[in-house]
Amino acid sequence: MKQYGVLIVGTGWVSGEHIRAFEMNPYSRVTAIMSRSQKKGYAKAAESGVPNAKIYTDYDEALRDEEVDIVCICTPNHMHAEQTIKA
Predict the structure, then answer these.
(1) Residues 55, 41: Cα–Cα separation, whole Å
(2) Alpha-carbon distance 32 to 75, whole Å?
(3) What's the number of CA atoms in the CB half-sphere (13 Å) around residue 76?
(4) How far apart (Å, rounded) are the C-alpha atoms in residues 58 and 29?
(5) How buried is residue 7: exposed, middle or buried, by Cβ count under 10 Å (0-12/13-18/19+)?
(6) How do residues 24-80 score in pLDDT, each as one tens digit?
(7) Which of 24, 39, 40, 84 is 20 to 30 A from 56 via CA?
(8) What angle do CA 56, 65, 19 make, to 5 degrees?
(9) 4-9 and 28-34: which strand pairing?
């Protein structure tokens, strides 16, 4: 059974809900988290039960991660269009 790798973009409260949903799905796993702050990225990974997720502070670099199959945008609304187009 293939598991799809998920990149979570953003570390606000909603990202925790998305992480939980992806981790409950046997076909997906959170492989990376992107945050402007490395410290917040590591904190979100630890509090969400995905301590082995890679932490990125550069969105373009995160998108190049070969383990990422799904990009989950959890940033403020005004950022969604640009980030979705890049993904």
Answers:
(1) 6
(2) 15
(3) 2
(4) 21
(5) buried
(6) 999 999 999 999 999 999 999 999 999 999 999 999 999 999 999 999 999 999 999
(7) 24
(8) 60
(9) parallel
